[in-house]
Amino acid sequence: MRVLKKAVLTGVMALAIAGSAHAADVKIGFVVKQPEEPWFQDEWKFAQKAAEEKGFTLVEIGAPDGEKVQAAIDNLGAQGAQGFIICVPDVKLGPGIVAKAAANDLKLMTVDDRLVGADGEPIESVPHMGISAVKIGETVGQSIAAEIEARGWDMSEVGAIRVSYDQLPTAVDRVEGAITALKAAGFPAENIYDAPQAKTDTEAALNAATTVLNQHADVKKWIAFGLNDEAVLGAVRATESVGIPAENVIGVGIGGAESAINEFKKPNPTGFYGTVIISPKRHGYETALNMYEWIANNKEPEPLILTSGSLALRDTYVDVRKDLGIE
Ligand code: FCA
Predict the structure, then answer these.
(1) Is the pLDDT assigned to residue 241 strictly greater than 50?
(2) Looking at domain 133-278, which of 3.40.50.2300, 3.40.50.10380, 3.40.50.1240, 3.40.50.1100 is its CATH number?
(3) How far is the CA of 112 from the centre of ligand 1 (A)?
(4) Inter-residue contact 210 to 242 (CB < 8 Å)
(5) How far is the CA of 51 from the centre of ligand 1 (A)?
(6) Does the beta carbon of 201 sit less than 6 angstroms from any atom of ligand 1?
(7) Could you tell me the pTM of the whole model?
(8) Cα 43 to Cα 63: distance, rounded to the nearest angstrom
(9) Does the CB atom of residue 87 touch ligand 1 within 6 A?
(10) Which residue owns the Cα nearest ligand 1 atom 9?
């Protein structure tokens, strides 16, 4: 009996050691286009949680342009990684990234921004986790429309800043979703002005929105939407810089990371009225876990996962974040 027990125990231990040795051999890259953006820092944070839980190594790399992406993939290959997850600086780099990953024998998954091929269509062979962009955009539009009504504004006197980044399909889907909902609520299409940003950050959005505000100096009430919180914050900062009071501005972003939270924490409300909180936990933790399962257990990830969002305002964001498990 004792001998048997010992044999069983030894077997269990051997299995455990084999399992952990395997996990320790796994190295996964997590490459993001804008490491300074809180959303991406949160993704890394949650991916790191998966790494700690499973015992694999996570390599975080910031790659803001195509050249850095190429170097990052070669680097991961050279250090013996087996796969990586990436949010690319430009989705048109798709075919090159797929080829480089294959040349380095690396499994590839994308997050947030989906690669497109030479024909402009999504590269479906690369597993992807993104947000339900149209639906989330609609939530943005609906919440702005409801607040226009609550403030008793006459829609014909309101201008809309569409902070746009049209080279990115998910960005188009998000703002077009917002526009669909606004129009459905009766917002006049001719009052929507395009503010194309050169980069997806606050400064670029501020510059783009300022141009629109200067062109329509007669408009006194404004709404703003864009692909993320940074875009809307840029538009809100622009309204402040031309002296439009906060109560005349309704901006709703997408994200819900630190950029939005810092705004809600300000003692007085700003024109940044709300945000649709999306889940860095799913996008960071779950993608990393799925990649790990693919490498360690040959379990292929789902080809496409689209995550949802929840509207949060100044006085509800703490609870919404708690519900989403992203405290
Ligand atoms: C894109 C945006 C990010 C974030 C992410 C989910 O990559 O640039 O700000 O919204 O989608």
Answers:
(1) yes
(2) 3.40.50.2300
(3) 6
(4) yes
(5) 22
(6) no
(7) 0.93
(8) 15
(9) yes
(10) 228
